[in-house]
Amino acid sequence: MLPLIADLGTPELLIILVIVILVFGASKLPELARGSGRALRIFKAETKGLNDDDADTAATAERELEAKQAAERDAFEAKQAAEREASTRRDDTTP
Length: 95
Prior knowledge:
single chain; mainly alpha; rod-shaped
């Protein structure tokens, strides 16, 4: 069906325009154009809002990942410190 739309030339578009004018009337065309413009602006704003929400979600996920990595790093360092302390105590008690 898509190739049929691509084959539309100037004569076909003029015929479609004449039919639209006959169906809706010339006085209604500006209102239709205004309504279409508003709908497109609203659609564009909503799409931008969704993209912004996606960016916020990605930033939040990145912050959570960094916090998790920092917590794991702190736990690993604490474990190493405890092992060094235990090793030092064993060395102090060995004659």
